[in-house]
């Protein structure tokens, strides 16, 4: 429930499902930004969130970009915001947790945020990191195949938004050596 194994003609790929999904989500959002944004899914019951003052201010500053990322958010007075719509990247997505973690990281900064060249990239990287499926999340065979295909359809499939590898490749020769063949 953490790695996807895929046999190739010349060996084996071991894919980190979280890192792979990060790469896929990041590239999809960056493409969506170029095309005007990605839609959010309206919530039947909007999220009412109390945030520290600095985070409320950051949400206000980034409101337009957050909306283009799929988060429709509005101030509700004081230290409260209401989230009316959220992106829908996968069935186990926790929109409140993702939103809170994104806003905290965008406010306080991190190596991930500092490594981004633009505000769009900052939003894209933090969203991809926080919204991606997690290590330990069970995926069906079909979901694994879809993630595999989506990863190798990206421009940079070999690393996630942190620069960590998404795939470890073991050649047939390496496997044979390890088994003493």
Compact overview of the structure:
By secondary structure, the protein is of the alpha+beta class.
**What can be said about the biggest beta sheet?**
3 strands, antiparallel
Chain-averaged pLDDT? 91
- SSE string, helix = H, strand = E? EEHEHEEHHHHEH
**Annotation, overall tally of beta strands:** 6
Measured by DSSP, the beta-strand proportion falls in 15-25%
Shape summary: elongated
Oligomer: single chain
- Catalogue the unreliable spans: none
Number of alpha- plus pi-helical segments:
7
Helix content: 40-55%
How far apart are the first and last residues' alpha carbons, in Å? 30 Å
Folded structure, characterized:
29% of the residues are buried. The chain is elongated. 46% of the residues lie in helices and 21% in strands. It contains seven helices and six strands. With 181 residues, the protein is an alpha+beta fold. The model has no long low-confidence stretch (mean pLDDT 91).
Helices and strands in order, then pairings?
Blueprint: E1 3-8, E2 11-16, H1 17-34, E3 41-50, H2 53-68, E4 72-75, E5 80-86, H3 95-108, H4 111-115, H5 119-131, H6 141-151, E6 167-171, H7 172-178
Antiparallel strand pairs: 1-2, 2-6, 3-5, 4-5
Helix pairs in contact: 1-5, 1-6, 2-3, 3-5
Task: Provide key terms for this protein.
181 residues, single chain, 3-stranded antiparallel β-sheet, 7 helices, 6 strands, alpha+beta
